[in-house]
Amino acid sequence: MFPAWHQTDLTIIIPDPKMQHKGYGTEAIRIMLDMAFHEYEMHRVSIGVVGLNTDALKFYRKIGFKQEGILEEAYYYNNAYSDFSPFKPGRETPHLMRKMRRFSLSKKVTRRWPFFSLEILELRERMRYNSEG
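Request: output the structure for the sequence above.
Response:
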């Protein structure tokens, strides 16, 4: 996160295949974009997707993120190089943004993602500390 530049990167990982394709990723993105743009007043939010993660590439395109290019062979994993693609919310993303509700750590969110709720609280503390110091 670069508060002075009003820019941040966004990452989500849902490692359990049984929890994937259930809308959790879309809900997590919605919450994080809401926080980034409304609570922290970010100007730009971006993500980076490794080319071999085809599910993630499809997901971000589906929810309206725009690919900004391809960094060829910029990621090294398991003795092989893969492309890396930066994305940002695109013009198609307003359908996601319109559906956003103001973020709050509801019981629904904390029950579903206790680790995510802790991350948000830690992020808020770091932002508060950085703005005061």
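The first strand starts at residue 7 and ends at 9.
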